[in-house]
Structures are given as C-alpha cells and as structure tokens.
Write a structure and sequence with these properties.
3 helices; mainly alpha; coiled coil
C-alpha cells in the first residue's frame, strides 16, 4: 500500500494515491478472474477429452475381448460369421452412441461462473465504495483544514501588518524624542557656556579689585 498523498488543489476530486490504488485493484481483479475463468474452461475441456478417450479405450477393449472370445469358442466358421455380424452390429451401435456423446457440445457452468463473478465483484465494489467514502471524508477534512489554515494565515498577516505599523509609529516617536533631546542638550550647553563666561568675568573683576587694594596698601604713608 502506498503512502496517502492528499490532493494538491480543492478542485481535485480524488487524490492521485486513491486513483492509483483503485486502478491497481481493478487491474488485479480483472487478471485474477480472467485467469480463473480460463483455468476452469481448460480444465473442463481436458476432463471431457479424457472421458472421451477413456470411453474409446473401453470400446476398443470390449471389441477386442469379444472378438477373441468368439473366435476361440466357435469351431463352426458359419456360426462364427453370424456371431461376428451380430457383434459388429452391436459395436456399430455402440460406436454411433459414443460418437454422439463425443460430438455433443460442451456444457460449461456459465451461469454458476456468472453468479460467482457477480458476487465477487459486488464484494470488491462494496470494499472499494467503503474505501472511497473514507477517502472522500478525509478529503473533506483536509479541505476544511486548508480553509481554516488559510483563514489563520490571513489573520496572522493582518496582525503582522498592524504590528509593523505600530513599530513604524514607535520608531518615528523615538526619532522625534531624540531630536527634541538633542535640541534641549544644545540649549543647555549654550546656557552653561554663558554661565561659565559670566563667572569668569566676575572672577576677573574681583581679582583686579583685590590687586588694586593690595597696591594701595603697599604705598607708604607720608
């Protein structure tokens, strides 16, 4: 039995494996029943030929035995001739009957063969019908599974598309946040630099004041 291969398309009625199995079963059944019929025909023909040959042999034996017995027991040639004539007449009638039997047409049990073949074919077709019903049910199940799977795939594709849109939106938000953060950092840097400039100027002014005070303190009094 070959491995079952499900149909590739929904338009396909039966799978290739089912078709191959059905074709093989039909070919095997045809070969077996034709061989069986040929065997029975040959057998009946040979049996009929054997029966005819056996009857011919019995007739020849009977002729030989009868003639030999009459020749031995009849001393009178005239009486022997009469007996021989009678025996020849009897043998002639027996030969005619035997020829009728041999020439009779062969009667084959055609009706029995026909009934037997119909019975076997009906049994095989019932088995094939059950087999096809099972395969059709499997085909329907596979088609339902294919439909459900295609629906699931469509749903997953829609979900993936929605997630991609969401990711794109989040990426755009992140880029906006990065830009705003960069602007804030730049403004903070400017402010810090301005503050540093002011502190350095104040320190410079205070230093000059201290130096002038120091210089004045170093001048001697008059």
């Amino acid at each position: 039995m070959e491995r079952y291969n499900p149909p590739s398309t929904s338009a396909q009625m039966y799978c290739h494996g089912c078709q191959r199995q059905i074709r093989k079963v039909q070919e095997l059944m045809d070969e077996r029943y034709l061989d069986n019929i040929a065997y029975h025909v040959d057998k009946n023909t040979l049996e009929t030929k054997l029966d005819n040959k056996a009857k011919e042999l019995e007739l020849e034996k009977f002729r030989t035995t009868t003639l030999t017995t009459l020749l031995k027991r009849s001393p009178n040639p005239e009486a022997m001739d009469e007996r021989v004539k009678e025996i020849m007449e009897v043998n002639k009638k027996m030969a005619e009957e035997l020829q009728k039997t041999i020439a009779a047409p062969l009667n084959y049990p055609l009706e029995e063969w026909y009934n037997a073949i119909n019975l076997k074919w009906n049994e095989k077709y019932d088995e094939l019908r059950v087999f096809l019903i099972e395969k059709n049910n499997q085909l329907v199940e596979y088609q339902d599974m294919e439909t459900e799977l295609s629906e699931d795939i469509d749903q997953y594709c829609q979900e993936i598309a929605a997630l991609k849109k969401m990711l794109k939106k989040k990426d755009e938000e992140i880029e906006e946040l990065k830009k705003s953060a960069a602007k804030e950092n730049f403004s903070l840097t400017i402010k810090e630099s301005e503050k540093k400039g002011e502190t350095t100027e104040e320190e410079a002014d205070s230093g000059e004041v201290k130096e002038s005070v120091k210089d004045e303190s170093e001048i001697p009094a008059v």
